[in-house]
Amino acid sequence: MPKKRGSGRRLPQRNSHSSAVSHIRSVDGRS
């Protein structure tokens, strides 16, 4: 992934984190 502006890098990073948290919470809830 190419390094973009702080704003551009911050947006995708936050989205990735949210997805990971959602996935972990989903797995934890199912388990």
From TrEMBL:
Bias kind Basic residues: ranges: 1-12
Record region (Disordered): 1-31
Protein name, entry field: Uncharacterized protein
